[in-house]
Specification:
By secondary structure, the chain is an alpha/beta fold. About 50% of the residues lie in helices and about 15% in strands. The protein is built from five helices and three strands; from the N terminus they run ααβαβαβα. It has helices at about 1-5, 20-30, 45-55, 70-75, 90-100; strands spanning about 30-35, 60-65, 80-85. Strands 1-2-3 form a three-stranded parallel β-sheet, sandwiched between helices. The longest helix is centred in the last third of the chain and has 13 residues, at about 90-100. It starts with a helix and ends with a helix.
Length: about 100
Amino acid sequence: MTRLLSSADWNVKQFSDPEQFLAYAKTHRPPIAVIDVWMPMMNGLEVQSRLREISPSTRVIIFTGKEDALVRSTAVGAGASAFFTKPFDDEEFLTAIRMAFAAVD
């Protein structure tokens, strides 16, 4: 993911710890966050929910390796700009990033 976004000239900051990311988001208010549903310590939907509280203007794109209609519905219902199941088309993903960035307040 980081390589794909970097290759498209996006400035990427990668986090493997959701708590570190949320601490960063409190002070930096990232315009876009790409969040994996399945991660250690808390799931991506919880990260999305907490992020919405601390940085409501951040656009969220969720991805997962396992299709789950309930997870997709929950993420989109909570305001995710896009939802992808791996493997996904790189160009579709980059288009979603561009659209989310265009929608940033």
